[in-house]
Amino acid sequence: MRHSGALQKRIEPTKIQKLYESQKARIYIEAADRYLESLGYTEHGLRHSSIVSKTAFRILHQLGYPEDLSVLAAAAGYLHDIGNMLGRKMHHKMGAVLAKEVLEEAGFTLQETVRVMTAIVIHEEDEGAIPDEIAAAVVIADKADVHRSRVRNPQMVSEDIHDRVNYAATESELLIEPSKRRIVLSLVIDTKISPVIEYFEIFLGRMMACRKAAKVLSSEFNLFINNIRMA
Q1: What does the domain layout of the chain look like in residue ranges?
Q2: Can you tell me whether residue 135 is helix, strand or coil?
C-alpha cells in the first residue's frame, strides 16, 4: 500500500474533536450554507460537513491507512466548503485560506495544516491532479453525499435538476471493501421523480473525479444505481 508523504508524528484524536467543537468553524460553515441557500443550492451546512468529514476518515481508516492521515482527511472534510461564505467562485481556494487559522487554533501543526489546506483546494473536481490520499478521500466523501435530505424545498424539485436528482435519491451508502480494494457508491433512485439519465447529466464529472481519487488509494470506484452497476 502506498502512503505518500506520511506524517512522522501520530495525530492525537483530540485535535479533530477540538475542530468539531470550534465555534469559529461552526460559524464559517453556517455562514457558507446561508449564502448557498440564497443562491438556491442544496444543503452545504453542518450536516453535509459532518458527513463528509466522517466518511473521509472512514475511507482511509478502513483501507488501512495510518490514523494521522485519516484525521487530516476528517479535518479537510469538515472545513471543505467554508469558502462559500465569500462567494461560490473559487470557494475551494478561499476556504483553504480561511481554514488555516481554524486548524491552528485546534492544535494542528503547520505541516498538518498545509496538508489539509491542499485537500480543501482539491475537492473541486476541476482542479485536476489529486496529490495524496487525504485529498482523494475528501473528493470521494464529498461527491458521495447524494440524498434527498439535502434538498431545502421539496415542493420545488420540478424546477431544478440538482434538487430533483438529490430528492430522488432515497438511499445512499458508501461501501468500503478493503480486501478487494474497492469503493462502492450505492444509490436507490426513485425514477418517478428523476430518471437515472439525469443523474449522469449533472454528476458524470463528479464520478470521474471519484474514479481518479480511488486510483490514488490503489482502489477501484464503482457506482450502483438501483442495484445495477453503472461504473
Answers
A1: 13-229
A2: helix
